[in-house]
Specification:
Layout lengths: L2 H23 L5 H8 L34 E3 L11 E4 L2 E4 L4 E7 L2 E7 L3 E8 L5 E10 L7 E6 L2 E3 L5 E9 L4 E9 L6 E13 L1 H18 L17 H12 L4 H37 L17 H12 L4 H36 L17 H12 L4 H28 L17 H13 L3 H39 L17 H12 L4 H28 L17 H13 L3 H39 L17 H12 L4 H22 L5 E4 L2 E2 L5 E7 L4 E6 L2 E5 L1 E3 L2 E5 L11 E6 L5 E7 L1 E2 L4 E3 L2 E2 L4 E6 L6 E6 L2 E5 L1 E3 L2 E5 L11 E6 L5 E6 L2 E2 L6 E9 L4 E8 L3 E6 L2 E5 L1 E2 L4 E5 L11 E6 L5 E7 L1 E2 L1
Parallel strand pairs: 14-22, 24-32, 33-41
Antiparallel strand pairs: 1-6, 2-3, 3-4, 4-5, 5-12, 6-11, 7-10, 7-12, 8-9, 8-11, 13-15, 15-19, 16-17, 16-20, 18-19, 20-21, 23-25, 25-29, 26-27, 26-30, 28-29, 30-31, 33-34, 34-38, 35-36, 35-39, 37-38, 39-40
Helix pairs in contact: 3-4, 3-5, 4-5, 5-6, 5-7, 6-7, 7-8, 7-9, 8-9, 9-10, 9-11, 10-11, 11-12, 11-13, 12-13, 13-14, 13-15, 14-15, 15-16, 15-17, 16-17
């Protein structure tokens, strides 16, 4: 059977299935079947254009005498109220006078609306039954994500809008009138563009639920009528009718939800039940006679045993006649099965004797002269062998069966060898296995022949056949590879050209070209194996990428500003994250002039954002300071009295917050309120018990133990590790005690006791003892970027350096480590440099001189460097202090490389794009990244 005939046969089967489904669900045929019918292929049940569909819509596209659609309303509007469009028909395309509106009929229930600078809607008013439920659905495909331009399905006053370019939309409703309008709209906003909307696989008819309700009555009526002869419920029941059929029909009646529809059908069912009851009574005697006749066929009347030796065909036939008259279907089937067993046993007796003779003759007939030790006949084929196998399989004698099976195996092997030889030779022109394969040879053909070769078991024959088949496979593989790379080149070339206007790769990219399109083109180019073609396409892709990077960066920068005006102000929504994202886009641009302009505009946005941030931060600082000051006072009234729980710490915290404000007026206002709070707190504390606080005592640095106090303290003592010392001065809220010779180590326990006028201790508090401040700086060599080191004093919060008398502030001081950028400040190994460390109050804690060492002078050369197209590494040799490399390939720089002890080096480039025309430079560095040598590399082919 030809390929075309196979296709037609398959389509006929599929269409027949579609008709069955359509009759159940009410759905119309799929457009693909109608399309095949239009191509001239015979398709069973395909609806033809110009006929009324099974659903509500009439898919007849006939024009009337005025050249308007006869069965559709067509109007260039969002709503089709009037049939105004006049068309000219060409094939399956209908076009209006100005060419702005087209209808393309794709099939029985599929069409495409194409309109330019206008909307277009077609509609039909269809007949409905009040109270019935209907479903309208269609699969919509449109050339763009729907927005102002969109396709719509309109049912009555309900508009269904898809949200995707391709989507099935559906609407189900219950009819409230005898008609409703169904519209298909292609909406355009009127811009200079062409809209396409395809409405396919359209269904307009009763819903699945409604069809089920209607079918319930039909199914029940059909089932009851089928109980009777000629489907006449006023006549006799069928002769073969069973109780099960009546019960099944009763269930279908129960499924009808309307009593008025159910009652007449149920009355007819009762007639059938009455007749079958009468029939069952008459059949009892006939059943007993049949049972006795069947039992008589078997030994001891045991129908599960063996038949009697005297049982004949005539006796079996007589029993069959009696069983045929039995009305009980189940009992009849049981008796027929028993008769069948008797017949089987009788047939086996008769057939067994003839079976061996038939099998022997069939095997001999495969061989020349019926000699099973010779060669098979030219006419012997698989059908003949299979028929002989069937006969041998039926032989029950084990020895005879084994003998015949061995002869069959020999015949099969001879046939397999002959078939495989013919199959292999037919792959080649003129059946010459030393020549070339035929143009029509495919992988499927070779696979089929491979299966034939696999069936051969003779090693020598099989090896020769496999060798010839391998030749054919090799030739087919070579053909396929050549064709595939040509296709890959064409696909890649088209993808790259599609990125540019007018497909001119020397021009500018299209407005619609995006990163997805470029990436897809890159994937196609990567698949090309022709090196020259691949290099050409890669260069064109690089140009498209650069143009896209510039365009994307320009859009990104302009969108940071109001009205996209880079000379104006930035938008309120701009954040640092936005600017950082745009900076990444600018970084992708390689054109120096374009990049410089973009960076300048981006810097403007950054400056404006920084200014906004500073203003917002000061407002926040003002709010925090204002709240802290008001919290010192009752009812937050800064003109009143301070709260009972207001402490010096709270006032100090408020002072710190106020100190950060940059608005001088607001700062002065809050400082005035703090002064008042301090005044009130001081006055209150003179009336309370003595309190005190000691300053941290630093070993080997402090001579006196100092601190502050409040209240009426007149003298003091100090407990050091349990031993008390008297002395010191206590005056004007401060105390001092000479402790250089008393406090020896950081673990000493030191307590300060403040005494009143009566010498009694008023308060005792501990003093923290800590080791002296220690600064450890890392070795600093001239040309180092940073001065670094560690410290052990947590009071240190900032630092400066003094270079030859000039002071520089800055650096980072945190977590016991410091770092200060000094590359542009220290220029000579003889410079005098001092590091100064301060606390948060800018009080100097410690100073330390910096030792500067002169840098080690390094030298080295790249003595050779080579690279060829296809190489994984640049290889060569170096001398001196070279430790790493930088390689620039067509403007892109990569760092790395490895150097062996013998001075040879490698730099991995297999993952980097380069061609024989690439411009490649390699630069060698010492361990401090100083440039020692540079060389240009010519890529060899």
């Amino acid at each position: 059977m030809t390929k075309k005939k196979n296709m037609k046969k398959m389509l006929n089967v599929l269409t027949a299935k579609a008709i069955i489904v359509s009759s159940i669900s009410g759905a119309v045929l799929t457009p693909s079947l109608s399309a095949l019918a239009a191509e001239g292929q015979s398709v069973v049940g395909a609806a033809s254009t110009g006929t009324q569909s099974e659903g509500l819509l009439n898919f007849n596209w006939e024009l009337d005498s005025a050249n308007k659609l006869k069965y559709w309303i067509s109007q260039s509007n969002v709503i089709a109220s009037y049939n105004t469009n006049v068309f000219t028909k060409a094939g399956n395309v209908y076009t209006n006078a100005d060419g702005r509106v087209k209808i393309t009929v794709n099939g029985a229930d599929s069409f495409t609306l194409t309109n330019t600078n206008t909307s277009h809607t077609i509609a039909q008013n269809v007949v409905t039954e009040i109270g019935k439920e209907y479903t309208i659905s269609t699969y919509i495909q449109q050339n763009g994500v729907p927005g102002q331009d969109r396709a719509e399905l309109i049912v009555g006053d309900k508009t269904i809008k898809p949200t995707q370019k391709e989507e099935r939309v559906s609407y189900t409703f219950v009819a409230t009138s005898t008609s409703i309008k169904i519209s298909f709209a292609n909406v355009s906003n009127g811009r200079d563009n062409t809209r396409l909307a395809t409405f396919g696989n359209i269904y307009a008819g009763k819903s699945t639920m409604q069809i089920a309700k209607d079918n319930a009555i039909t199914n029940a009526r059909t089932a009851v009528n089928n109980l009777f002869e000629n489907q006449n419920p006023n006549g006799k029941i069928r002769a073969d009718l069973t109780q099960a059929e009546i019960d099944a029909a009763q269930k279908l009646i129960f499924a009808i939800d309307s009593l008025s529809s159910r009652q007449p059908i149920n009355n007819d069912l009762k007639k059938a039940q009455t007749q079958i009851d009468e029939r069952n009574a008459q059949g009892k005697a006939e059943l007993e006679a049949a049972e006795n006749a069947v039992k008589a066929l078997f030994n001891d009347d045991d129908v599960t045993g063996t038949i009697k030796a005297i049982t004949s065909q005539e006796e079996i036939n007589n029993a069959k006649e009696l069983v045929a008259a039995v009305k009980d279907v189940d009992k009849k089937a049981e008796l027929e099965a028993q008769i069948a067993e008797a017949q089987k046993q009788l047939d086996k007796k008769v057939a067994e004797e003839a079976q061996q003779e038939a099998a022997t003759n069939a095997v001999k007939a495969l061989f020349n002269n019926n000699d099973t030790t010779g060669t098979i006949k030219d006419m012997t084929n698989q059908v003949a062998i299979d028929k002989a196998k069937e006969l041998v399989a039926a032989v029950t004698d084990a020895d005879k069966k084994a003998e015949l099976t061995a002869q069959l195996d020999e015949a099969q092997e001879q046939l397999n060898i002959r078939t495989a030889k013919i199959g292999v030779s037919q792959l080649f022109n003129n059946n010459d296995v030393t020549g070339t394969i035929k143009d029509a040879v495919t992988q499927a053909y070779i696979n089929a022949i491979q299966n034939l070769v696999n069936e051969v078991t003779n090693p020598a024959e099989k090896a020769k056949l496999q060798a010839d088949l391998n030749k054919a496979q090799a030739q087919l593989d070579a053909k396929a590879e050549a064709a595939e790379d040509t296709q890959r080149q064409e696909a890649a070339k088209k993808a790259v050209e599609d990125l540019f206007n007018n497909n001119d790769v020397t021009g500018t990219i299209k407005d619609m070209t995006n990163q997805v399109a470029i990436d897809k083109a890159k994937e196609l180019v990567a698949a090309v194996t022709d090196a020259d073609k691949k290099a050409e396409l890669t260069a064109q892709l690089d140009e498209a990428q650069e143009q896209l990077n510039i365009r994307t960066a320009k859009i990104g920068v302009s969108q940071l500003f109001n009205n996209n005006d880079v000379t104006g102000t930035i938008k309120d929504a701009v954040t640092q994250a936005y600017i950082n994202a745009i900076q990444n886009l600018v970084n992708e641009v390689t054109n120096p002039a374009e990049k410089a302009k973009l960076q300048a505009d981006l810097n403007k946005a950054q400056a404006q954002l920084d200014a906004k941030a500073e203003a917002a931060e000061d407002t926040q600082r003002q709010e925090a300071a204002k709240k802290a000051v008001e919290d010192l006072f009752n009812n937050n009234d800064t003109t009143g009295t301070i709260k009972e729980n207001t402490t010096q710490e709270a006032i100090d915290n408020a002072k710190e917050l106020v100190a950060t404000i940059t608005d001088t007026d607001k700062k002065a206002e809050l400082e005035k309120a703090i002064t008042e709070a301090q005044k009130q707190l001081t006055e209150r504390e003179t009336k309370v018990e003595v309190t005190g606080k000691g300053n941290t005592f630093t070993l080997q640095q402090d001579r006196y133990l100092t601190g502050t106090y409040t209240g009426d303290a007149t003298s003091m003592s100090v407990d050091i590790n349990g031993k008390r010392y008297y002395g010191g001065t206590v005056k004007n809220g401060e105390f001092s005690f000479y402790a250089l010779d008393k406090i020896a180590k950081e673990t000493d326990k030191v307590l300060v006791n403040l005494h009143g006028a009566d010498k009694s201790i008023q308060t005792t508090f501990a003093v923290v003892v800590k080791s002296p401040t220690k600064i450890t700086s890392s070795a600093y060599k001239l040309k180092d970027s940073n001065i670094t080191g560690t410290f052990n004093n947590t009071d240190i919060t900032k630092m400066n350096i003094v270079v030859n008398g000039k002071t520089y502030w800055g650096g980072t001081v945190a977590n016991g480590e410091f770092k200060f950028y000094a590359l542009d400040k220290i220029t000579s190994a003889t410079d005098e440099v001092t590091m100064n460390f301060f606390n948060a109050n800018n009080e100097l804690i410690i100073s330390k001189n910096l030792t500067i060492t002169a840098p080690v002078v390094t030298a080295g050369d790249i003595t050779s460097a080579t690279l060829a197209v296809g190489d994984k590494n640049i290889v060569g040799t170096v001398t001196g202090d070279i430790k790493s490399f930088g390689v620039t390939i067509d403007g892109t720089t990569y760092n790395g490389g490895t150097i062996a002890a013998d001075g040879t080096f490698k730099f991995y480039v297999a993952d980097k794009k380069f061609t024989a025309d690439s411009v490649i430079t390699i630069v060698a560095y010492d361990k401090s990244k100083n440039t020692l040598s540079e060389m240009h590399i010519a890529v060899s082919k």
